[in-house]
Amino acid sequence: MTVGNNNFKPLSFDNVIIKETFLRELANALVAIIADGRFADSVLQKKLREHKWLPEERSLFAQATYDILRNWRRVWFAIGQEPSPEMPRVIKAVCAWFAMNGFKLQRSASLPDIDVATVRSKWQQAEGERAIKYSLPDWLDKRGAKELGEVWNQTVHALHHEPVVALRVNTIKATRTDVQQQLKALGIQTNTTALAPDALILREHTNIFGTEVFKKGFVEMQDVGSQCIAPFVQPEPGMRVIDACAGSGGKSIHLAALMCNKGKIIALDTEEWKLTDLSKRAQRNGIHIIETRHINTTKVIKRLTNSVERVLLDVPCSGLGVLRRNPDAKWHLQPEDINSFITTQRDILTRYSAMITEGGKLVYATCSVLPSEGEEQVRWFIQQNPTWHIEEERRINPHTDNCDGFYMARLSKQ
414: Cβ–Cβ under 8 A, 6 or more apart, which residues? Predict the structure, then answer.
C-alpha cells in the first residue's frame, strides 16, 4: 500500500471521492478486529457480503483495512493520539489514512477535518522509532530484539510488507508448466521460484478462486515458505504418515501429492470444522488417501502409538512468521501467550513423538520467527529424549526468501 512506502498517490483511483458511509463501515470493521478480537479475514468477508460494492470498491475496502491494520500504531501516531476503540477517533484515523494517500473525502459536518501536511510530517517522524514505524506492541518489539538481535530489524521490515500471493500446483493433476500456461491464457501472469518447485507467484492480485483452474483442483493457495515443509518430511508413495496438527489441510494435501496419492495420511486436529474443510479440499484435488480424525480425547493419540513412518507436527504458535498476511495477529497476542504456546508445543512434541515406528522420522514445524518456539524447543526435546537426534533443521526467513517465516527440524531416533 502506498502509505507504507511513504508515497501519497491515489491507489489507481483518480478523482475518487470516498463516501462517509464507506469510511464508517471501514471503521466498524477495524473496531471489530482490534477491540473485539475478531479475525480480519472473517470480518472482511462479512462486510463484503453485506454491501453491493463495485469490484474496485471491494478491492479498496480490503486493501485499506489491511494496510491500516499493518500500520495501526503509526497511523495513530500520525494523528497525535493513542489507539482507541471509540468510533469517532477510529473514524479520524481512517480519514487520515485516506487523506495521506491522496483520496478526497466526502464533505460532511460529521467527519473530522484532516490537516494532511501535519499528519504526513508526524508519519515521517516515526521513521526513527522501530516499534511505531512497524506498528508493533512494545512488549513484542522487545522480545523480538532480545531473541533475534540485529536480525529483528530485517525481520520486522520484511514482515511489514504486503505478502505475495502464491499458488501450489497439484502435481497429481498437472505440471507447473501446464498450469502456468492455463493461467496465462486467462490473462493471469505468474513467476516461478527456486524455493519451491511446484509454486507459482501471481504478478498481480487476482481472484483465483473464480477460475476453472482452481475449481478443478489444479492449484491450491499456499505460501512459498509453507510449501517447503511437506517435502522436508520426506514422504514416499505407500507410506503411512500423520499430519498431527492438520488444520484445514494445506500440508496434508501437499503430502498426498508428493506421495502420488498412494499410501495413507491420517490428518488430526482438535477443531472438527477444519477437518471438514480439509475433506472438501481433498475431494476437489482428487485425493483419496487422507483420513481425518478429530482429537476429542487423549485416546485418539494413544491409539496411534508406534503406528506410522512419518509424523508432521506443524504446532500451534504465535504466528509471528505470517504477520504479512495476518497483521491483526500482533494486536491479538499478549506477552503470556508466547509462554503458553511454548508449553503446548512441548506437550505435543512429547506425546505425539510416540506415534512413530522404529526408523521413522518426526518433523517439528512452526510459523514463528522466534527461536524460543523453534530451535530452543527442539533442543529441549533432545535433552529430554536423548535417543532422538536432529537430522536437519531449516529456517525460511521473510527478509531473505520473500515469503512467510518458518522453522522446521527433522528428527529421528538413534
Answer: 387, 388, 389
